[in-house]
From TrEMBL:
Transmembrane segments: 6-23, 60-77, 108-125, 131-153, 160-180, 186-206
Taxonomic source organism: Stentor coeruleus
Key word Manganese present: no
Example of a GO cellular component annotation carried by this entry: endoplasmic reticulum membrane
Molecular function (Gene Ontology), one example: ATP-dependent diacylglycerol kinase activity
Protein name: Dolichol kinase
Keywords: Membrane, Transmembrane, Transmembrane helix
InterPro entries reported for this sequence: Dgk1-like (IPR037997)
Length: 233
C-alpha cells in the first residue's frame, strides 16, 4: 500500500514540475485557460485510474483516502498555523491555486481527492468508479476550457451552453471507452445526460470537484438499479 500511495504522489508532483517547465513563458492563453491546473486535473485522474487497475478496491480506497487526509491536515497547517509553510507552498504550487485558495479555503486539489474518495466509499463496482473519476478528470476541464474559449449563452451561474455540451460529449466518449473495456452495451448513450447533469448541479458551499464524481456515481448506480445498465462487479 505504501508503495502505491508514494508512487502515485510522486507521479502527480513530478508531472506538475515538468508541466511548469514546459509552459513557462507560453503567453496569456495558457494563463487565461489555467492550463497547468486543467492538465494536472486530467493527468491526476489518469494516474489514479492506472494505479486502481492494478489493485483491489479496498486497497484503492486506502490509496486515495490517505493522501486526502494528509492533504487536509497540511492545508489547515499552512493556511491557519504556519505562515512559512504557506509561503513555501505558494512559491512552488501557485499555478494550481485560485486567489481565494491561498488563504481562505482548501484548494481544488483537496476536493478533487475528496470527491474520488467519496466515490470509492459509495460503490465497489469498478466501471462506476472509473466513470466517476473520468468525468471529474475530463468533463469538468472540458467544460471550463470551452466555456472560456467560446462563451455564449449562460444556462446557470458560471455554466455556459458551450461548456456544458463539451462536458456531455466528453462524458459520452469516456462512457464509450469504459463500455468497450467492460463489455457494457450502449453505456455511451447514458454518458451524455449523466455528464451534463453532474456538471450543472451545484450545491451551495461545495466545490464541483467534490460534487461531480459523487453525482456521477449516484446517477450510474440509479441507472443500474433501474436495470437500464448491467454493470459487471
Amino acid at each position: 500500500m505504501i508503495f502505491w500511495v508514494a508512487f502515485g504522489s510522486i507521479a502527480v508532483i513530478g508531472f506538475h514540475v515538468l508541466l511548469k517547465v514546459f509552459l513557462h513563458g507560453k503567453g496569456d492563453l495558457a494563463t487565461s485557460l489555467h492550463l497547468v491546473r486543467r492538465l494536472q486535473h486530467v493527468i491526476s485522474g489518469f494516474i489514479i485510474l492506472a494505479l486502481h487497475h492494478f489493485v483491489q478496491h479496498q486497497l484503492g480506497l486506502i490509496m486515495v483516502l490517505v493522501p486526502t487526509v494528509f492533504f487536509f491536515i497540511f492545508d489547515i497547517l499552512r493556511r491557519k498555523y504556519i505562515p512559512e509553510l504557506n509561503k513555501w507552498f505558494i512559491s512552488h504550487w501557485e499555478t494550481l491555486l485560485r486567489p481565494h485558495e491561498i488563504y481562505d479555503s482548501p484548494p481544488a486539489a483537496f476536493f478533487f481527492l475528496a470527491g474520488i474518495t467519496c466515490t470509492f466509499f459509495l460503490t465497489q463496482v469498478r466501471p462506476i468508479t472509473e466513470l466517476s473519476v473520468l468525468f471529474l478528470s475530463c468533463c469538468d476541464p472540458a467544460a471550463s476550457i470551452f466555456g472560456i474559449l467560446i462563451g455564449g449563452i449562460k444556462i446557470a451561474p458560471k455554466k455556459t451552453l458551450a461548456g456544458t455540451c463539451a462536458a456531455g460529449l466528453v462524458g459520452m466518449l469516456c462512457s464509450l471507452y469504459i463500455g468497450y473495456l467492460h463489455s457494457i452495451p450502449y453505456l455511451w448513450l447514458y454518458g451524455f445526460p449523466v455528464a451534463i447533469f453532474s456538471e450543472l448541479i451545484s450545491v451551495p458551499y461545495l466545490d464541483d470537484n467534490l460534487t461531480i464524481p459523487v453525482f456521477t456515481c449516484m446517477s450510474f448506480q440509479l441507472l443500474s438499479k433501474l436495470d437500464l445498465i448491467k454493470f459487471p462487479l
